[in-house]
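Q: How do we represent a protein-ligand complex in a form that can be generated token by token?
A: Start from the inputs.
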Amino acid sequence: MMTPRTARSARSALVLMLFAAFLAGRPSWPAGVDPKTAQRIDEEVEKNRAEIVKIRRFIHMNPELGNREFETARLIAAKLEPLGFEVRTGVAGTGVVAVLRGGQPGPAVAVRADMDALPIQETANVPFKSLNPGVMHACGHDVHSSVVLGTALVLNALKDKVRGTVTFLFQPAEEGAPEGEEGGADLMVREGALDTPPAGAVFGFHVWPETVGTVLFAPGIVTAASSTFVITVKGKSAHAARPHEGVDAVVVAAEIVTALQTVVSRASDPTDPAVLTIGTINGGARRNIIAERVVLEGTVRTLSETNRKKIPLLMESIVKNIAGMHDAGCQFEYKEALPSVFNNSELCAAMTPTLTKLLGKDKTLEWKPQMIAEDFSFLARKVPGFYFFLGVKNPAQASAAPLHSPNFNPDERAIPLGMRILSHLLLDALNGQSALAAGAPGF
Ligand SMILES: [Zn+2]
Ligand SMILES: [Zn+2]
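Then emit the structure tokens for the protein with zinc ion bound:
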């Protein structure tokens, strides 16, 4: 007999199989939604635009750090619950999962927005500046939440055209949970955010300082796998004037810092990008005492499996050998934090015509994998994922402040465009899979 759990996982497996079959057997993407539906999407985007921009500004003025997105989550749930969405709150801490059941039966897809802000003091000169000192939406997650919320409103108004189910995920702590806490996409997945109903694909996006009106995407690897490390060098304290009686942890640490630079520059394939950054170095007690202890902290970013496996081994060997050479002790802690975001090739190919049709070929730019990290990877590891970048640079400006800058100020014209893009992507994904399930010709 099937327990509810095995029944659920059998159902998930079936949905995934159907979606995989749809992706694999797809000779060409259907023409997209009919012109009337496309027009209705445009009308609904326009109808909701002013309110969503207002909500974005409200969230921007009231930014909340990871796992503390209480008011942001409340606002989103309060907006969707009265409209009949099946809303679950408190997922992975402050996360919100809102399910829209379409007017027609069909498969399920999910779309994710992150809600957290960063510990940065805003310097951008905008009338809706952050009211929370030292906290700012410098990564555009206010835009992500608003665009996904706006898309939920648009698709709710077009419910009769929705074949299946759309799960809207509002995720906490993308930038990392506070010390000692869990959180983010990994926890959302573990708490079943993609399971009820079982999603066949997951969509996500990030704002990017590229001209508004453009999107960037590519199949395969999108962002780097990221790891963190802590190196503790243990020396022996002595009088600064009698160094021969001690073991100087500062000198050992300095050698380690220099030698670690060779991991990428000398020991890795130059055509396979990797980054090794030491972000902090702390140690010593006083200027006239030989330092007993130095702690180095940093991050490693890789794109390939080879580097992901090889780099920590090389690092450990360098650290231990240098410490040993000087009779110092050392501790090497290495933790894999985030896997790469990976765009499912077939899903990406299926979505390309949707994007080129909406924006024009010249506005769909090729994404080159970056060494940034994104915890959307946990969602895209569970089911096929499609992740793209939405241009938010004001075209009148030569350049825009980058993500995580205190001056970051995305062009809000990207908000209605984002709603339009997501509405089409989600409807096309559901329609494409439904067509396969119904045995429609051409699939
Ligand atoms: Zn960020
Ligand atoms: Zn971000």
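The chain has a mean pLDDT of 93. The pocket of zinc ion (ligand 1) is lined by residues 139, 175, 403-404 (CB under 6 Å).
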